[in-house]
Amino acid sequence: MDIKKYTCIVCPMSCDIVLKAEKGKIIDVSGFTCKRGENFARNEYINPLRTLTTVIKLENSHYNCLPVISDGSIPKDLIGKSLALLKKISVKAPVTKDDLIVEDLLSTGVNIIAAKSVKERG
Amino acid sequence: MKIINTDLAIIGGGPAGLAAALEGKKQGIKNILILERNDELGGILQQCIHDGFGLQRFKYQMSGPQYAQMFIDEIEKSDIHVKLNTMVLDINENKAIHAVNSTDGVIEINSKTIILAMGCRERTKNQVFIWGTRPSGVMTAGSLQRYMNIEGLLPGKKAVILGSGDIGLIMARRMTWEGIDVEGVYEVMSNPGGLTRNIVQCLNDYNIPLHLSTTVIEIHGNHRLKGVTVAKVDNKMNPINGTERYIECDLLALSVGLIPENELSKKANVKLSNITKGPELNESMMTSIPGIFACGNVSAVFDLADYVSETGELAARGAAKYIRNEINKESPIEIVPGKNAALVLPQKINIDNLGEQVKLYLRTRKIIEKAVVNVSLHGNLVHSQKFRIVRPPEMVITNFPSDKLKKFQNRGKLTVEIVREGD
Fold this sequence. Notes:
The structure holds two protein chains of two kinds.
Chain A: E1 2-7, E2 16-22, E3 25-30, H1 35-46, E4 49-50, E5 53-59, E6 65-70, E7 74-75, H2 79-87, E8 90-92, E9 100-102, E10 112-114
Parallel strand pairs in A: 5-8
Antiparallel strand pairs in A: 1-2, 2-3, 4-7, 5-6, 6-10, 9-10
Chain B: E1 2-11, H1 15-26, E2 32-35, E3 51-53, H2 55-58, E4 62-63, H3 64-77, E5 81-83, E6 87-91, E7 96-101, E8 105-116, E9 120-122, H4 125-129, E10 131-132, E11 138-140, H5 141-151, E12 158-162, H6 166-177, E13 181-186, H7 196-203, E14 210-211, E15 214-220, E16 227-232, E17 245-248, E18 251-254, E19 258-260, H8 263-268, E20 292-294, H9 305-323, E21 333-337, E22 341-345, E23 348-349, E24 357-364, E25 368-377, E26 380-390, E27 396-401, H10 403-406, E28 412-420
Parallel strand pairs in B: 1-2, 1-8, 2-5, 8-20, 10-15, 11-18, 12-13, 12-18, 13-14, 21-28
Antiparallel strand pairs in B: 3-4, 6-7, 7-8, 9-19, 15-16, 16-17, 21-23, 22-24, 24-27, 25-26, 25-28
């Protein structure tokens, strides 16, 4: 039997979750205090997911960077590749929060969106 | 000199000040002015590009700039006045504020009420205690965050982090993502300073080691940082001979705690608390000077921006009541941290001023599983609340109906303790 211990990162409660699996199949999850915690542990075993936040190059503004965020979670393994892709991207102000920056990032179905609104250089 | 008269002046446009302004408007305060030192609103949130904000308030997680934008959009739709690039120089006891910016020059703001929402600053005290030279490349985690997330600069190639506060942990991941080699995080205490979730997702995810009971004892390098010497410490926090280790690095980030920013509070002459290091506050977040309120990290360092905004709203409701002359300025009940409670906010209560609920923010001195928070007035237990676990980096919040206090006399000491269930 495979026993995994996870600390949940969904909220500041940081629940300690124990997951039991046999031959790659999850048979028991315990220690969570909400449904999101249970889902976190299940994902952590099958395919760990993380939210991606970084900054990209911003033009036509007196700021150099635009903070961006993934509008969902992406596989942890794809973080490096995603960051490399985002390093090559630049956008022009004005930008409005939630503007689409990258659609369907690396075929994950997750988009990269602007995290703030920035006016053009005045 | 330009003179402005207003009903509510808010100093600082971060998560506390923005929430205070919007709530003030909702409460019917007419003239509201936010004074912000930076060239944009949002405060420190603008450089906190990581996610984890807003879970309590908006029920989903977002990054710092997203959280700030929610408030900024509302402010822009309102008639709340904002002065950016404006530095407040002085506040006096008559609630006159002196500030300066490049368009107005020096201005005087006479306000019926003031809310102090300047936030906190990073502790650099320990930095001074480290032996060695003072080369470039030694900076607080917050400065590093600003360089990387606002300016778009990479301040080094190989980093050591001293202190395991949340910003340090977040920056360990951020640096890794941008190609800076993070050698490790060193914490002088035997417990981590930051939230467990941050240790998991910022250190463990990237195999960055956390060395507890270990500190930096010497800084090396003349113009640029060349390396640091770390050593294990004993239980009195003295370095242990023979455990020294030299680490080559060109960046040392300090994440050794936050302290409420109270230079202006001192100028206004409000009474400061030895426990929170912020102003002594009553249930309406009013300081010892009637009409001057404080909120957010000025009042005590919070772990979540959600709570910071919540105290901003509380202060704004207090200011609205003060303007309507509905607030009793006496605070006959003193709130005292009892067993295991490191601090409690607020510090004073007047039962007559209470709304429907009493909310107390506290911090525990140690990790307690199956904890119970007990609130007693003159030795009578008025409220008891269970917690699965309480930890020093996390604010513990307990609330109860005000009616539980109203049957008692409006005086004496309200003690708040944190004990293990059954003790």
